[in-house]
Amino acid sequence: MGMSTETEPAESQHEAAAVDKSSMRVRSMFTSIAGKYDLLNHLLSLNVDRLWRRFTTRTVPPEPGVPVLDCCTGTADLALAYDRASQGRSPVIGTDFCHEMLRLGNGKVKKAGASDRIVLVEGDTQRLPLPSDTFGIVTVAFGLRNVSDTVRGIDEMIRVARPGGKVAILEFSRPRGPLLGRLYLAFFRHVLPKVGQAIAPNQHDAYHYLPSSVLQFPDGQAMLDLLTSRGLNATEHYPLTFGIATLYVGTKPLRGAAG
């Protein structure tokens, strides 16, 4: 099922085609907005992004003593959520290729008294500097669509998950239906860039990039099919807040198991 109007798909495809997701551009963009990133996320989602992360930790709960990896961790919100969910009993590693975001994330980790449990590492999700078959849960929240090569990012997440481990992807998605679909597109294309620009002046490009990157990213069944094609089993998805965001979950096969 797609959007309800006949003109929207063509507009969406044109907008998506214009998105430059080169690593250099994305790193530079997030460095420039790092100081306002948390404020904008919480404001633009009316703080519902906190509930989405909590839902993720409850739907894919950590096991005591089993490490968790949060890719594209940004300022470490999901890494901190997993530390809280495990009551500090599971080590958490967060990776991101934006140094400034990690600097802010380390400040939050220290403030939470979790420096002995959460380690933030500078690294690209396309080339994770971590060993294979290690983590019980590998997550990413609102970051996979910013990875230059989505498939390569997913493959790396699967590589570092241990056999039987979970891969969990929390990402913006597109609500279906005539009214909500149109309202969503109008908000993302016209309202969100203006709000972002008001809070973070001179960062016009960043808040036009967001709607474009969401519109070009696979969601719903397309994402489930992609995860299955990369080798994950038992894939499921959970639309959140009328489909504005979706949690996708898959399981890495046990060794010797059929794909």
From TrEMBL:
S-adenosyl-L-methionine binds at T75, D96, D124, T125. Its EC number is 2.1.1.163. Keywords: Menaquinone biosynthesis, Methyltransferase, S-adenosyl-L-methionine, Transferase, Ubiquinone. GO terms for molecular function: demethylmenaquinone methyltransferase activity. InterPro entries: SAM-dependent_MTases_sf, UbiE/COQ5_MeTrFase, UbiE/COQ5_MeTrFase_CS. Residues 1-21 are annotated as: Disordered. The keyword Cytoplasm does not apply. It is an enzyme of class 2 (transferase). PROSITE patterns: SAM_MT_UBIE, UBIE_1. It catalyses: a 2-demethylmenaquinol + S-adenosyl-L-methionine = a menaquinol + S-adenosyl-L-homocysteine + H(+). CDD domains: AdoMet_MTases (cd02440). Pathway: Quinol/quinone metabolism; menaquinone biosynthesis; menaquinol from 1,4-dihydroxy-2-naphthoate: step 2/2. The keyword Aminoacyl-tRNA synthetase does not apply. Pfam families: Ubie_methyltran. One of its GO terms (biological process) is menaquinone biosynthetic process. Methyltransferase required for the conversion of demethylmenaquinol (DMKH2) to menaquinol (MKH2). PANTHER family: 2-METHOXY-6-POLYPRENYL-1,4-BENZOQUINOL METHYLASE, MITOCHONDRIAL, METHYLTRANSFERASE. Belongs to the class I-like SAM-binding methyltransferase superfamily. MenG/UbiE family. This is Demethylmenaquinone methyltransferase. It comes from Singulisphaera acidiphila (strain ATCC BAA-1392 / DSM 18658 / VKM B-2454 / MOB10). The gene is menG.
